[in-house]
Amino acid sequence: MSKIGIIGGGNMGSAILAGIGRKFTVRVCEQDARRAGLLKRRFGVKAADLATVAAGSRIIILAVKPQNFDEVLGRLRGRVRQDQLIISIAAGITCRYIEQRSGQRIRVVRAMPNLPAQVGEAVTGICPGKFATSADVKTARQIFNCIGKTVIVDERLMDAITAVSGSGPGYIFYFAECLEKAARSMGLSPTMARELVTQTLKGSARLLERSGEGADVLRGRVTSKGGTTQAALAVLQKHKMGKILQQALAAAKKRAKELSK
Ligand SMILES: NC(=O)c1ccc[n+]([C@@H]2O[C@H](COP(=O)([O-])OP(=O)(O)OC[C@H]3O[C@@H](n4cnc5c(N)ncnc54)[C@H](OP(=O)(O)O)[C@@H]3O)[C@@H](O)[C@H]2O)c1
User: Fold this and answer.
1) What top-level class would CATH report for the domain 168-259?
2) Could you tell me the distance, in angstroms and rounded to a whole number, from the CA of residue 80 to the centre of ligand 1?
3) Coil, strand, or helix at residue 163?
4) Which of 73, 153, 216, 261 has minimal Cβ neighbours within 10 Å of its Cβ?
């Protein structure tokens, strides 16, 4: 059992805690007393101060917002040792930035999970920093496999990962929102619209995952010539949904690059 310290027990920190709590010994540093109390009640984890968590953990997971990141790095400077691994999930903060501010040849791994971590269904992009070893990447993979699936990438692809899966749940929720609205406009109750849309998304994702077939093949299977699905798809294609999504993802990737340091 490794001792893992999580700095920041918010949305993501607590989702990671929920996933790894049984497999690893975990400590948390959370500045918000109400949240700290919640973590204690829900997971039995007592919050400790940053110095205690930093000193006593083999792996330190940085799960604070990018705007709190410099403050945390500043407080960790001089406290982090080379026998420790830093894992950062902060959007846009590069491994190099953390290495330089730590002031030593610190082993850093960067990870980009997504919100379905809260139900154990995240997908996390992972990339190693300059001084991280392949064992460190393996360790990070073990941790994030506890909250879903993982992919290993080069850091230059992290902005693309952010655009596709990091921000991805936002697009899917927007899609669900639009479908529900359209369903309600056809006379279905809000409850029924929610159930129909949620189960259709869930069932389609599961089929895509389990069938081993591409989305295009599965789409073909529900699209009979002259039928209802074809009528709807013709509208989506006329309005160039593919192109719109390409532009949306390009905008997210550009923004990730602008925000990165
Ligand atoms: N949410 C996502 O979908 C998602 C996806 C991928 C990556 N991420 C990354 O995950 C990180 C965390 O995001 P989040 O949504 O979990 O944020 P969050 O809910 O705001 O959680 C961060 C927590 O850390 C606390 N905190 C701030 N500074 C601290 C300090 N010095 N010591 C101890 N605790 C401190 C915050 O307390 P206060 O509220 O008092 O500041 C807050 O409770 C971000 O860097 C984000 O880029 C998030």
Assistant:
1) mainly alpha
2) 20
3) helix
4) 216
